[in-house]
Amino acid sequence: MIFKKIIKFITNKLLFFFRDFMNIYNEKTLYIFLKLLRKHSLINNRSKLLFEFKIYPKNPKKLFPVNTQNDNMSVIIQGPVFDRDFIQSTIDWYKNCGIKNIIFSTSEDVKSFRGCITLVTKSPLEEGIWNENNHLQSIKSGLEIINDDSLVIKTRSDQRIFNETAFTVIKFLHESYESSKTFNNSRLGVISNNSTIIKINNISDHLYIGNCLLLKKMFDIKFRNKINLLKDLNLNPVKLNFIRDKLKSSFYTELEAEQWFFNSFRKNCFIKNSQEEILISKKIYIDKLSKYLDILIENIYVIDPEDIGLYWTKSSIDTLPSFYHNSLQNKKSIDCFRLTRYNWLTLVNDISFKKKILDFAKGLDDNHFLF
Q: H or E element: which one contains 170?
């Protein structure tokens, strides 16, 4: 393990200097390097991977005007200011793509951004398990100043939608899905990255798409208290980190921030409260998983990051679900049970797929790694 960490450290340093050298000489060298890498992955008989890449400009510009119908669409960019220039460029890009109402919401005391409404709210006094209380507050602040009937895309300050037609596509996609279970018959749009099938309620909070009133109800929850919550769940920080990537963590249906938010969606946005208990036993896990799968089929829709050209500046984010990995991964890990758009569509259209998932889950023990 130590040797692997040393190799990883050395490799990262070498790549940093190699990339820095390309900046000095000519950045097009990077394109040539990647092109050759792609070519040799194809002709190398020992390679089991096909290599592809995308290069995005840091400051994108529209070459041609695109007529959009996004008058009733709002974008909330939520989170800390990791890179002010990146955020400002993202706001400018969204404006050029026809989005008129853009809100940047943060708990940091920052100078207002150009071309949007900048909201600054103080961090909550309550400390959550993670950073979920800050997350909740900045989302709620943004939603409060948006009309109830507006379509809202909730994004993060470290990501950007590069596909200039994505906003129009998202609107039509959202309107094409309905739910008979939610109070306004609309669905919640989610991103596949970090969303799972096996872990109950683990639907990514990186990006949400929804009617503003639905999102207001979804985030109508109180701040969490770390000490009280861990006490209620009979957990401590050490045990929490030990179980976090294992099947056992699925028995705690509000452990992660995204689980907490999705369980609130199940509670506050349905005609009939479908909230899951925050702690379930292994005996009823399969029954609860079956109920969760039904909710995924009937009340959400899934988008893959590559469908909208979604890019993260955060280096620890793996945007393609098939590339998701964990340092604790071993031979017991569960393969390909991420909630990709393909897996969601299969779940919706193939009755037997749900049974396959449940049968597979029955054979797992508490210590199986999920990723």
A: helix 166-176
Q: Which residues pair with 154 in a beta bridge?
A: 76, 208
Instruction: Give the C-alpha separation, 41 to 20, whole Å.
Output: 24
For helices 28-43 and 2-25, the axis angle rounded to 10 degrees is: 130
What confidence tens digit (pLDDT) does each residue in 208-250 have? 999 999 999 999 999 999 999 999 888 888 888 888 878 888 8
Q: 173 CB contacts (<8 Å, ≥6 apart)?
A: 189, 301, 303
- Taking only Cα atoms into account, the Rg of the chain, rounded to an integer number of angstroms, comes to 22
Question: Given the structure tokens 């309905």, which residue do they identify?
Answer: 178
Bridge-based pairing of strands 300-303 and 188-191 is parallel
* Contacts of 216 by beta carbon, 8 Å cutoff, 6+ apart: 140, 143, 144, 148
Q: Which two tokens stand for residue 118?
A: 């900048």
Question: What backbone torsions phi and psi does residue 301 show, to the nearest 5 degrees?
Answer: -140, 155
pTM given for the model: 0.86
Q: Are 98 and 161 in contact (CB under 8 A)?
A: no
